[in-house]
Amino acid sequence: MFDYLIVGAGFAGSVLAERLASQLHKKVLIIDKRNHIGGNAYDHYNKEGILVHKYGPHIFHTNSSEVFDYLSQFTEWRPYEHRVQASVDGQLVPIPINLNTINQLYGLNLTSFEVEDFFQSRAENISPLRTSEDVVVSRVGRELYEKFFRNYTRKQWGMDPSELDKSVTSRVPVRTNRDDRYFSDTYQAMPLRGYTAMFERMLDHPNIKIMLNTDYHEILDLIPFREMIYTGPVDEYFDFKWGKLPYRSLEFKHETLDESVHQPAPVVNFPNEHPFTRITEFKYLTGQQHPKTSIVYEYPKAEGDPYYPVPKPENAALYNKYKKLADDTPGVYFVGRLATYRYYNMDQVVAQALTLFKKLSATKEKEQLLEDRAPLHLKGTDSSSGGSKLKVKALKELASTLSTNGNGNGKQNGKH
């Protein structure tokens, strides 16, 4: 009997498997439909011996010391600050937009104070901010919006920024200094030996068993377990009862080139040309030395593996209907991007998983406390007197009033 069946071996599932096994000594079975662990962060050496990210670039960054310290148990780090350039008007310029971007694009020599005036002179007064278009136009004006954001967003999301929630472009900063880093987080680094090696160390515990190429439906009636942690699509779990939640997907075209360096930056965005959105060159990310180089093109598409929840009000409303079902499902914990229909960075998923573990740990402590404080006549083991049955019944009744699983209940169930 496993204490937990964990569906999905990405960040959410793997973190919880490791914590439950190492800290609470629980027996865990973690399964995944794919033939590997690590979820979308999975990396591997291609046939030329170059370390590549199968599902596109995954750049680790966080402001959370808790998340960074936790992952540091399973990997050494290679310091890495990510940089991106965009192909605009026949030039490669820094993105996010900064002082150098404006000076290079317009042939100017502005200072940080002057570039703020430049932005303000072009910005439009929009209130309230509702859409992704509103966010950008109100900050830098319509011309820069057209050059950098509109067509890129159309390719990425299959719709105009005026149709998308403001959260999509709110994530992208605009700077008045020369800082050309894509992120400004306190911790910016890459796992020294790659993500897969980190996941392997995380799941290397005698209480953790791994099954790959496995749909969880296939084992529900075959392998006993007490509770489930589900990290897959929440609509799929409930057999699409309210319809499918919309996602955007990606197609990746990998190439290895007979040259040591292909482009001047780790990632180059193409907002206004080509059907793909960007090209990533992996050796920048990994620091690997190799006479050849590997790149990946990203082609957004409507169908395929779910990558990005589409941020529109009607989709949020649809998810809330599924969330209510999840909250009312006993013994199943929904965690991660797909199970909570949120676009989370890797560190946010780790933080969410650690938070759920703390709740589970507190629940187990309460149950143990109840056991320890049970009256002496409930601690008896004389089954002939009915003591054991009374003890179990009383403890279950008490535990059910105190234990919660993050979905508003603490009952046991392994199926839906």
TrEMBL record:
The protein's required cofactors:
FAD
Pfam families, per database record: GLF, NAD_binding_8
Could you tell me the EC number(s) of this protein?
Answer: 5.4.99.9
Query: Which InterPro entries is this protein grouped with?
Result: UDP-GALP_mutase, UDP-GalPyranose_mutase_C
Recorded GO CC terms: cytosol
Q: Does the keyword Flavoprotein apply?
A: yes
Lineage, top-rank taxon, reads Bacteria
Gene3D superfamilies per record: NAD(P)-binding Rossmann-like Domain
Give GO terms: molecular function aspect only: flavin adenine dinucleotide binding; UDP-galactopyranose mutase activity
The enzyme class is isomerase
* UniProt keywords, alphabetically: FAD, Flavoprotein, Isomerase
Residues in UDP-galactopyranose mutase C-terminal domain copies? 147-343
Note whether Flavoprotein occurs among the keywords.
yes
Q: Which family does it belong to?
A: Belongs to the UDP-galactopyranose/dTDP-fucopyranose mutase family.
Protein name, UniProt field: Putative UDP-galactopyranose mutase
The species this protein belongs to is Cesiribacter andamanensis AMV16
Source taxonomy lineage? Bacteria, Pseudomonadati, Bacteroidota, Cytophagia, Cytophagales
Give the gene that encodes this protein: rfbD
